[in-house]
Amino acid sequence: MARVFNFSAGPSMLPESVLSIAAAELLDYRGSGQSVMEMSHRSKVYEEIILGAQAKFRAVLGVPDNYKILFLQGGASAQFAAVPLNLLSGSGKADYVLTGQFATKAYKEAQKYGEIRVVASSKDKTFSYIPELKREDFDPEADYAYICMNNTIFGTCYKEIPDTGNVPLVADISSCMISEPMDVSQFGLVFGGAQKNVAPAGLTVIIVREDLLGKQREDTPVMLNYKEMADSDSMYNTPPCWPIYICKLVLEWIEALGGLTVMREMNQKKAALLYDFLDGSQMFRNPVAPKDRSMMNVTFVAGSDELNAKFVKDAAAAGFVNLKGHRSVGGMRASIYNAMPYEGVEKLVAFMAEFEKNN
Ligand code: PMP
Questions:
Q1: How far is CA 93 from the centre of its chain?
Q2: Would you identify the CATH topology of the domain 17-256?
């Protein structure tokens, strides 16, 4: 069967070799006589999987010892509430930078729990850039400052981590997690849904500095309580067993490639190929400020709604699927996460050149 090149923003492609291992181990996981989907999360055999996945995450991303890695459920969206519930217990104030729909959703959710301020926003230009941020822009009394590192819908990404002084920085890294090396020590907390670069949907990864644990509001639901989840090693209740298993395989795949430095080189090469084509095209255009372009989500338009629609349709027929932009912005978006092979982008660019010539 021919596999398509899937440019979906998430859930998205997984490495083919990971899928092959999962398929080979599907009925009988390494002699256990059962599938990972069937086994007790309290069993010895599963314990090795979850602890192994956590250890691999720590090793591959270089997570310092004073950070906990949590494997939870509820998607990144549950974290929009969990972050303020767990962290807003000092001044009750937090600073948010609005760079797109997900940052705005997080801001709205946080407003239920404290005094939330917008530090900067790029809404004036349809979120097509990342605002300049200086340390003085942030309230030194805030319990935390919040950014969305890579804006999946608009195709922008922070290239520099804002300096927030002593205020812990919280970042939504859903769509850039483990796509390149990252200095976790610059953050108080990072989180992301796994369904882009890490695993199938159902797993949310949270990496939190230990001194931020135990500050939650009294009424924090136990399922959103970082301290409770850290104390139970993400096993307070049944964890998302299968995505955690795939996460471990994906991390092993990255490790075998040479780690995140190599992953970044591969991702940069793919993104450069596509952006260079867009910059030279007479028909297609990327609307993002060049310095803020995302390496993961490449947005583009073809000049008219009719041409955009025709492009998405023709591309799907040729085996390039899910290229339609987010329903809130239109146009096109190619999400080129870790598992998208270079060949996929190469063939897409050739297809775009041909489309341009014929239309
Ligand atoms: N944040 C970002 C940056 C995202 O891209 C997404 C999903 N596309 C979300 C949050 C929401 O994630 P979830 O569906 O896991 O709640």
A1: 26
A2: Aspartate Aminotransferase; domain 2 (3.40.640)
What is the 107 CA–ligand 1 centroid distance (Å)? Answer: 14
Ligand 1 pocket test, candidate residues 105, 150, 175, 299, most atoms within 8 A of CB: 175
Residue with CA at minimum distance from ligand 1 atom 9: 76
CA dist list (Å): 170 to 79, 104, 124, 149, 155? 11, 14, 24, 10, 20
Beta pairing partners, 327: none
Nearest residue (by CA) to ligand 1, atom 12, is: 76
Q: How far is CA 359 from the centre of its chain?
A: 35
Domain 258-358, CATH class in plain words: alpha beta
C-beta atoms surrounding 63 within 10 Å? 18
Q: Which residue has the CA at smallest separation from atom 2 of ligand 1?
A: 174
CA 151 to ligand 1: nearest atom: 3
Whole-model pTM: value is 0.98
CB 163 within 8 A of CB 180: no
DSSP string, 40-64: -TTSHHHHHHHHHHHHHHHHHHT--
pLDDT tens over the chain, length 359 residues: 689 999 999 999 999 999 999 999 999 999 999 999 999 999 999 999 999 999 999 999 999 999 999 999 999 999 999 999 999 999 999 999 999 999 999 999 999 999 999 999 999 999 999 999 999 999 999 999 999 999 999 999 999 999 999 999 999 999 999 999 999 999 999 999 999 999 999 999 999 999 999 999 999 999 999 999 999 999 999 999 999 999 999 999 999 999 999 999 999 999 999 999 999 999 999 999 999 999 999 999 998 999 999 999 999 999 999 999 998 888 999 999 999 999 999 999 999 999 999 99
Q: Where in the chain is the domain with CATH 3.40.640.10?
A: 17-256
Measured in Å, residue 269 CA sits from the centre of ligand 1 at 25
Q: What residue owns the CA closest to ligand 1's atom 5?
A: 152
Q: Atom of ligand 1 at shortest distance to CA of 150?
A: 3
Q: Which residues belong to CATH 3.90.1150.10 in the chain? A: 258-358
Residues in contact with ligand 1 (CB, 6 Å cut-off): 9-10, 75-77, 102, 148, 152, 172, 174-175, 193
Q: Rg of the Cα trace of the chain?
A: 21
